[in-house]
């Protein structure tokens, strides 16, 4: 099981919106092994693009062993963070098939990758604010508790603690 599999108690396309958002967030931060047409030459890679029901998609897995298992042999691949791969595919107008045959299998079309890259680039507006910290709203804490715990687990040994607060 992988970190993506752990976030997939139900298939991606059957999950509710918050669960899909957590999976996409993890995908963006996961190193993916994407199939190539041939071994890279210098820094140039050529992704292997498949026609899947009329859509062009690349194939990537969250481990090179899964990629080799899918093809039944070792294949040329590039290891890229999900956010980088999403940007490359967006520029090419292609989609992405992730971890076929595993709990975290997902097919992201070009529209979804466009949304994902936009969400990853979003930044809050800068401005001046005078905040007063308060206890977090109970509903917000309930929704954010599990996703924050999952992300903070990645920082084990790097942080001593964390706090969830509200502001006014």
What does this structure look like?
It comes from Paracoccus liaowanqingii. Pfam families: SseB (PF07179). This is SseB protein N-terminal domain-containing protein. Residues 16-115 form the SseB protein N-terminal domain. InterPro entries: SseB_N. It is a single chain. This protein is of the alpha+beta class. It folds into 2 domains: 3-123, 3-Layer(aba) Sandwich (Trna Endonuclease, Chain: A, domain 1), CATH 3.40.1350; 130-168, no CATH class. The protein has 6 helices and 8 strands, in the order H-H-E-E-E-H-E-H-E-E-H-E-H-E. The chain has helices spanning 3-6, 17-29, 64-71, 82-92, 110-121, 138-153, and strands at residues 31-35, 49-52, 55-61, 77-81, 95-98, 106-108, 133-134, 166-167. Strands 1, 2, 3, 4, 5 and 6 form a 6-stranded mixed β-sheet that branches. The chain is elongated, with a radius of gyration of 18 Å. The model has no long low-confidence stretch (mean pLDDT 89).
Task: Specify the helix fraction band.
Answer: 25-40%
CATH 4th-level superfamily of the largest domain: Uncharacterised protein PF11572, DUF3234
Give the N-to-C terminal Cα separation. 41 Å
**Pattern of helices and strands:** HHEEEHEHEEHEHE
Q: Globular, elongated, flat, extended or rod-shaped: what is the shape?
A: elongated
What is the average of the pLDDT values? 89
